Hints:
Layout lengths: L1 H4 L3 H7 L4 H22 L3 H21 L8 H23 L6 H5 L11 H21 L2 H11 L4 H8 L3 H21 L6
Amino acid sequence: MHELExxxxxELAVQAAESEAAEGVLLSRYLRLxxxxxxxxxxxxxxxxxxxxxxxxxxxxAVKAFDxxxxxxxxxxxxxxxxxAMRSFLRKERRAAYPVExxxxxxxxxxxxxxxxxxxxxxxxxxxxxxxxMQVMAMLSKREWEILQCxxxxxxxxxxxxxxxxxxKSVDNAVQRIRRKMRAVRSTDYxxxx
Length: 194
């Protein structure tokens, strides 16, 4: 492992095809770069985690796609791949335009109570929140509901994935489905029909 630390990025990229250790050293070298760009490009902290994940996936693909015969430096090639993946992710997210943090709002009241401090108002609020919670649960699959709960508790994609024994990409896919369903709910006033 120590001998790998002295290899150039290009040498490690070539060796990574046959050596997980070489790939690991190379990935660890670029982790700070990925984090730097993720924080720099992300509009929110949640997006920074997503961008970091996208950057790592792009780096793994860059390692596999790198061709030293082209005469390019691995660092420039990898950085281009990482930034392209992050920008592509952000473009897709802008089209979605529905951050995870906003999912909490679907479960909350709209604030139309006159006096929120009376016992009746508190009871009405609890009943309404429970009803909305049931409506959201009916819309989502069991797995989507578990992932939503995990995220609403403040867990990252990676923490949710570990907790539910699935991959972080599965968490991301489920979040995309949840976002689509929530957008549909908002656009059709689904909750007002109950």
